[in-house]
Write a structure and sequence with these properties.
Number of helices: 10
Shape: rod-shaped
Number of strands: 14
Length: 448
C-alpha cells in the first residue's frame, strides 16, 4: 500500500471501528450491570419483607400470613415469586401455581446472599435472590424471584438501536475523516499538478507557499530544477564558446598546411580534409547557437513565436538568392517539446531547404495530437535511391554546396528521440526535395 491517503484512511478507520466496538460493549455491559443492581435491590427488599413476615412455631413449622403479602405474589404467573423452605415444611407464593422454583445442587450457607439466574414457570427467565437465615433458632431459606424477560427484550432492542446509531455515526466520521485527509494532503496534490504544469512548460518553478511539512520538498525540487537549467545553459554556452574558439586555429592550421606541404600533395590533401571536417562541425555549433537564440532550458516550443526570428535570419542570410519563403504556421500554439531541440531540428531543415532551393521554400505545420511539419523547396531534389544515404552521418549528396552532412542525420536522431516519423521524397508542387516530420505531442508517447 503506497498511497499515504490509503494508509491514513485504513489506520484511522480501523481505530474508529475498534473504538466504537469497545464503547458499545462498555455501554451495554454498564446498562446490564446497573439494571441487575436495581433488580437485586428490589428482590433484597422483598426477601427482607418475607423474612420479617414469616412465623416459626415451636415445632419448627413455618407459616406466612397472606394478608401481609402484596397482590403481585397472589396472581398466577405474575412474574414475581417466592419460596421459603423450613426444616418441616415449605411456603410458596400463589403466583407459582402448580410450578416450583428448583435449585438443584445449591449449597447455601447461613448469613450469605446468593444471586443467580434460572428458568422459572412457563420458561420465564428469572433473577433469583436467595439467603439463608436463622429465626427463633430455626434455619430458613428464602428465595425471591423476578421475571426479567421484558428487560432482556428491551436490552435486545436497545443493542440493535444503539448498534444502528453507532454504525451511522461511524460512517459519518469515516466520511469526515476521508474529507479531512484529502484536505490535509491537498498541498501534495497541488505540488503534483504544478510538476505536471512544469513538465508541460507552463511554469518554471513550484509555488513555495506551502505547509511546513511540504515546503522543504518543494524548495528542494525548485533548487534542483534551477541547478539543472543552469548546468544545461553552461554546457550549451561552453560548447558554443569552444566552437568559436576553435574556428581561428583551424583556419591557421589549414593555411599553414597549404604553405608547408606544397611538395607533399597527398599529405596536404589529407590534412585539409580533416581540418575542413572540423571546421564544418564548428560551423554547425555556431549556426545552432544562432538559430536557438537565447537558451532557455526546459522551455517548451511555440511554433509561430520561436520560429519567427529564425525565419527572419534565414531571409537575411539568403537575401542574394531572392528566395520566397511560404510560411504557414498555427498561431500561439505551444507544443510539449523542448525548445532547443525544435530550434535545432527546424533550423537544419530550413537551412538545407534555403541552401538548395532556387526561388521557393515552403514551410507548413499542423497540430492535433501530433505535430506534422512539411518542408519543401524547388531545388534539384534527391533521387529515391540516394535518400537513405542522406541519413548517414557525414554523407553529402552535393559536394559542391558549402555545408556538411551532419544536418539530416541530426534531424533523424531528434525525431527518433521524440518517437516521431520521418518521410522524405520529391515535392509534387515545387519539384524539389520534400521532408515530412511527425512528432507526438502526448508526453507518454514521447517517453515510450
Amino acid at each position: 500500500m503506497k498511497s499515504i491517503q490509503a494508509r491514513l484512511g485504513v489506520g484511522l478507520g480501523a481505530s474508529l471501528v475498534v473504538l466504537f466496538i469497545v464503547q458499545w460493549i462498555i455501554v451495554t455491559y454498564t446498562i446490564t450491570h446497573l439494571t441487575d443492581e436495581i433488580f437485586q435491590t428490589r428482590l433484597e427488599h422483598d426477601a427482607e419483607s418475607l423474612m420479617a413476615a414469616v412465623i416459626v412455631v415451636d415445632s419448627g413449622k413455618i407459616s406466612l400470613p397472606f394478608a401481609s403479602i402484596t397482590d403481585v405474589y397472589q396472581r398466577p404467573f405474575s412474574g414475581h415469586y417466592f419460596k421459603i423452605d423450613g426444616p418441616v415444611n415449605t411456603v410458596r407464593s400463589r403466583s407459582l401455581w402448580d410450578e416450583d422454583l428448583k435449585f438443584e445442587g445449591m449449597d447455601m450457607k447461613p448469613g450469605k446472599v446468593y444471586l443467580h439466574y434460572l428458568n422459572g414457570p412457563l420458561n420465564q427467565p428469572m433473577l433469583v435472590y436467595g439467603m439463608k437465615i436463622k429465626k427463633r433458632g430455626t434455619v430458613i431459606t428464602i428465595h425471591a424471584a423476578h421475571d426479567i424477560s421484558d428487560f432482556q427484550n428491551d436490552m435486545v432492542e436497545f443493542r440493535i438501536s444503539y448498534a444502528t446509531i453507532s454504525v451511522s455515526a461511524l460512517l459519518v466520521l469515516l466520511f469526515l475523516q476521508v474529507a479531512t485527509i484529502r484536505q490535509g494532503l491537498k498541498p501534495i496534490d497541488q505540488a503534483r499538478k504544478q510538476l505536471a504544469a512544469m513538465r508541460r512548460g507552463e511554469t518554471r518553478e513550484l509555488d513555495e507557499n506551502a505547509p511546513s511539512e511540504v515546503q522543504p520538498l518543494v524548495m528542494e525540487i525548485n533548487r534542483l530544477v534551477n541547478l539543472l537549467s543552469q548546468r544545461i545553459q553552461r554546457s550549451r554556452n561552453a560548447l558554443g564558446n569552444l566552437a568559436h574558439a576553435l574556428k581561428a586555429p583551424l583556419t591557421v592550421m589549414n593555411n599553414t598546411a597549404s604553405d608547408a606541404l606544397k611538395n607533399n600533395p597527398k599529405l596536404k590533401q589529407s590534412i585539409q580534409q580533416q581540418t575542413d571536417y572540423m571546421r564544418q562541425l564548428v560551423e554547425r555549433e555556431l549556426k545552432r547557437a544562432r538559430l536557438a537564440g537565447v537558451s532557455e532550458p526546459g522551455k517548451h516550443f511555440n511554433l509561430s513565436k520561436d520560429l519567427a526570428p529564425m525565419i527572419a535570419m534565414l531571409e537575411s542570410i539568403y537575401r542574394a538568392k531572392d528566395l520566397a519563403l511560404d510560411i504557414d504556421l498555427p498561431e500561439n500554439v505551444t507544443c510539449n517539446l523542448d525548445r532547443e531541440d525544435m530550434m535545432e531540428l527546424f533550423g537544419n531543415l530550413l537551412d538545407n531547404a534555403c541552401k538548395f532551393a532556387n526561388n521557393m521554400v515552403r514551410f507548413s505545420a499542423s497540430n492535433t495530437d501530433t505535430l506534422v511539419v512539411t518542408v519543401e523547396d524547388d531545388g534539384p531534389g534527391v533521387e529515391d535511391e540516394k535518400i537513405n544515404e542522406l541519413l548517414k552521418r557525414g554523407v553529402r549528396i552535393d559536394e559542391s554546396t558549402l555545408g556538411h552532412g551532419l544536418g539530416l542525420s541530426i534531424v533523424k536522431d531528434t525525431v527518433t528521440h521524440y518517437n516521431g516519423r520521418l518521410e522524405m521524397g520529391r515535392s509534387k508542387d515545387l519539384g524539389g526535395f520534400k521532408i515530412v516530420i511527425s512528432l507526438p505531442l502526448n508526453r507518454q508517447q514521447i517517453l515510450l
